[in-house]
Amino acid sequence: MRASRLLLSTVRETPAEAETISHKLMLRAGMIRKLAAGIYTWLPLGLRVLRRVEAIVREEMDRAGAQEVLMPAVQPAELWQESGRWDVYGPELLRLQDRHRRDFCFGPTHEEVITDLIRREIKSYRQLPANFYQIQMKFRDEIRPRFGVMRAREFLMKDAYSFHVDQASLKETYDVMYDTYSRIFRRVGLAFRPVAADTGAIGGSASHEFHVLADSGEDAIALCNACDYAANVELATALPPFGKRAAPTAAMEPVATPGQHTIEEVSRFLKVDPKRTLKTLLVRGTGGVVALVLRGDHELNPIKAEKLAHVAKPLEFVTPGEVEAVAHCEPGSIGPAGLAIQVIADESAARLADFVCGANKDGQHLRNVNWGRDLPEPEVADIRNVIAGDPCPGNEGKCNGTLEIRRGIEVGHIFQLGTKYSEAMQATVLDDAGRTVVMPMGCYGIGVSRVVAAAIEQNHDDNGIIWSDAIAPFQVALVPIGYHKSQAVRTAAEELYHTLTGAGFDVLFDDRNERPGVMFADLDLIGIPHRLVLGDKGLAKGTAEYKGRRDEKARDIALANVTTELFQALRLID
RNA sequence: CGGGGUGUAGCUCAGCCUGGUAGAGCACUUGCUUCGGGAGCAAGGGGCCGGAGGUUCAAAUCCUCUCACCCCGACCA
User: Fold this and answer.
1) Within window 50-109 on A, which residues have Cβ closer than 7 Å to strand B?
2) Fewer CB within a 10 Å sphere, N or C end of chain A?
C-alpha cells in the first residue's frame, strides 16, 4: 500500500482525553477516533491490526474444531426473560424498543441466542460435542467507559459456546479451549498468564481468565514466585498462618483514642503495628447483622464473604444508624468484644493474641485483647484478599513459594457454564440410552479489540507503538529518501516495492512528499516492525538500509539480498 | 448514581476574574527555499466561543437552565 493513498492520520500532540499509553498511542497513530463515550470508529490503520488479531483467533478456533456462526446483535427480550436475565442484568443491558413497542436489547453476550438455536437444531448425543463461535460487536453500557478501546461500551468480542452430553465431555473441550487460548495469545505475541478466576453468579466448576501482565491493568492477580499458581485476587486463597496462636501476656485494658477512626490513625496513635490490630465490619446477614473481623492490614474480600452461610448475598454494609444500634458507637470504634451478634473472623485475625480492637464506645479502643479469654472464640473463615508476601497455596499448600500481586488486563475468559442456560431454556438431547438430558455448556470469550490495546500497553517506547510481526498493520515500511527528487531512487524504490509485494510481504510504501524526519517519526509511531530505507548514497553502493523497530541502529544490506534478509527478519525462514 | 473539572479554529490551549472589533502554536492551502529523525520565510483559508434563556447600550466573559465529554468515588470500621 502506498502511504499517499492511506488515511494516515497521525497527530503530534496527545489528545487531552487519553490517560493510558495505549489510548494515547492509538489516537496519535490514527488507529481509532471516538464518536461518543466508549464508542469508537476504527480507522484503516487500526482496522488492519484488529483484523489480524481476528484472523489468528479464527484460525485457532477453527483448528480446535469450533464452527463459526454470526448471531444477531439485537436480541428479543423474550429470550432474556426465559433465562431470567432480563430482570437481573441491570442498566448495563442496553434495552430498546421497535416500532411495535416490543422490547429488545443490544447483545452484551449471546448465551440465550445460541442456546435457543441449539435446542432447535441439535437433538441427539451423536451431534455432540459441538462448539460454536462468532466474532462480533457487543454492547455493554458500562458505568464508566475509559482507556479507549480497553474498556469501551461497544467492543469486538470472540465468543464461543460449547454443548455436551455430559460433564466429562465439557471438561475435555474446556481443556482444548485452554490450550487454544494459550496458542492464540502466544501467536499474537503477548506476555500473558492463565489465571484461576471466580465463576461469579454463573456458577459452574471451573473458570480461567487470561491476563496480559501490565501495570495499567484493572485487575489484581496473585502470582506465585515458585510454582505456576496464579489466581485473580478475587479468588486467590490465603493459607492460614503457620503455627499456633501465642498465649496472652497481658490483661485487657481500655485505652482512649479520641478522634482516631481508621486503622492507620489508631495504630499510629497507639504506636502499634496494624498487623496487631483488628478491624470489624458490620454487614447484613441471613439472620440479622454479622460482624466480619480482619487483621488491620488486611482487606475484606467481598466475594469470599458472600459465600458464607451467615452472610446475606449480595454483600451489603449496614448503615451508620444500624452500627449505632448494634455496637452503640461510630463505625470507627467497633470491636468484636461484647457484640451480641454472629462474629466471623478471618484466619489471620483469629490467630492474633494481645491485639488492639474497637471498644464499641466512641473514642475508645481495647488493647491486649485475646480470643477465648476476653471474648468467645469466633467462627473462622478465609474472608480476606491475599497480599504480597502471603504463602502460596499451590501444590496442596506445600509449595513454600510466596505470592506477589501484579496487575493484569483480562483479554480472555473461559468457563464451564454447566446447565444454567440449557436448563432454563430446556436445551436437551437424547443420550445413547434414549434418555433426555440437559446439555452442559461451556463458554469462552476473547476481547478482540481489547487485545489490540493490551498489545500496545505491553509493547511501546518513547517513539510509539512496537507491533509484533503477527499483528502489525504492515510488516515492512519502505522509505525512499528523495523519491520526488531523484529518478534513481524513484526507479529503485518502485522496483523494490514490486519485488517485495510479489514476494508476499505486506509493505507500506512511503511515497509521500515528506521530509525524512516526518516519515521516520510516523513509521515509528504507527509501529511498523521492519523498515527499509533507500537513498542515493546507498544505491550507489548497491545497498538498502534495514532497521528493526526495536533495533538501536540501522545496517546496510545488499539490494540483491533484501528479500532473503526480510524473510529472515520475519523468521519466515531460518 | 454522588463529587470535581472542562467545553473557544481540525488538534493542544490562551482570552473569562475586571463585559467593549475572537487569539497563539500545530495542522490545512499557495509560492520560494530546504531535504537522513516531526524545516524556514511569505501570503492565505477556516470560529452559531457546546445549546437555550436572562441581565446589559453591549456577553466568549456575568446569572439560570440544559447537553456533552473528562477525572475521582461508591470499604472511616
Assistant:
1) none
2) C
